[in-house]
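Journal club side-thread
Mid-discussion, someone asked how the predicted structure for our own chain would compare to the paper's figures. Pasting it here so we can look after the session.
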Amino acid sequence: MALKAMLFLFTTFLVFTATVSSKDEELKEVTYVKEPEPAQPPAKVPVYAPPPPVKTPPSQSPPKAPAYAPPPPVNTPPSQSPPPKAPAPVPPVEPPTSPPLPPVKSKQDCIPRCDQRCQLHNRKRVCMRACMTCCDRCKCVPPGTFGNREKCGKCYTEMTTHGNKYKCP
């Protein structure tokens, strides 16, 4: 149905343009004579001349570079450098001691600690679920967002999943 409507509109358009174009041909028979306009002189365009070349006096020619000659050998005694000094002893670096973690008494104590531990994890719900389980069983959550697992002891570091991967984040 839409094709028939489009075809009808197209034929109507063709008939209308054919009628208008035939009337244009009748109007072309009448011609109007246009009087020529007086010619205007062309506007002057400023022409810029290139700057004159700089002339150098012929008596002064650039000096020629001398051919390469190695410098004359100098007879000096070899310089003696002082013996190298031993590096200063470095005191042993002690790991920063953090205050002992307060004990976890209930599952409610685990929530803010696990939230802090898992805040940067890309799968936060999975991390929170594992952390809550580890916190409930071991009564500890390590500080920071990653690492420091040894701070919570053997229970936290050795807990594994069924696939033998570490469970606690």
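Post-session note: The CA atoms of residues 105 and 139 lie 7 Å apart.
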